[in-house]
Write a structure and sequence with these properties.
Elements (H helix, E strand, L loop, with lengths): L1 E2 L4 E2 L4 E2 L2 E2 L13 E5 L6 H10 L3 E4 L1 H5 L20 E5 L5 H4 L7 E6 L6 H4 L2 E4 L2 H13 L5
The protein binds flavin-adenine dinucleotide.
Length: 149
Amino acid sequence: MVAPSKSQDTGSIRIEREVQLGPDKIALEEARVIFSAGAGVANIDAFISTANDLNAAAGGTRVLCDRGELPRDRQIGASGRAVSADLYVAFGLSGATQHLQGIEKCARVVAINIDAAAPIFQRSDVGILADADKVLAALREGADNGVGS
Ligand SMILES: Cc1cc2nc3c(=O)[nH]c(=O)nc-3n(C[C@H](O)[C@H](O)[C@H](O)COP(=O)(O)OP(=O)(O)OC[C@H]3O[C@@H](n4cnc5c(N)ncnc54)[C@H](O)[C@@H]3O)c2cc1C
């Protein structure tokens, strides 16, 4: 999204316009809130739009990047990006060692998974035993109703 604004002259730098980047364009390394999807997310488009609506950067596991459901620069983990978000929300991802290596510096982790034995729950501060797509739908509904705004 581009938001034009009046020109400002600050001396050596002239600002012609301000450009606001959508959350899906923010580099994962700079994001404070990240929504991350794994193979347990069935509707990747709904996942990305929910992340955008809630101002979270969208990333995910290698499985989703290998499938072409997320661009490679959105892969988090040992062979992807290392991130240091204040809040990392893991939807339907198992928490494989190679993925966890990429989120070591995240302050808070919330995990949503249908398998109570998923390793991601060992790394999470809050664990939700639930269907990832249903939680995403509930978040969208909350956002539509103005919850959290
Ligand atoms: C050398 C090497 C480098 C690697 N580098 C990376 C890397 O950088 N990043 C990375 O991510 N991986 C990397 N991997 C791959 C890694 O080992 C895992 O295979 C991968 O992280 C698993 O992705 P996943 O969690 O999406 O899938 P899975 O392991 O298949 O997990 C899917 C999870 O979804 C849950 N689930 C299923 N349905 C639902 C539902 N409806 N709701 C909620 N939960 C559900 C399941 O219980 C399961 O826990 C690497 C592997 C190797 C060998």
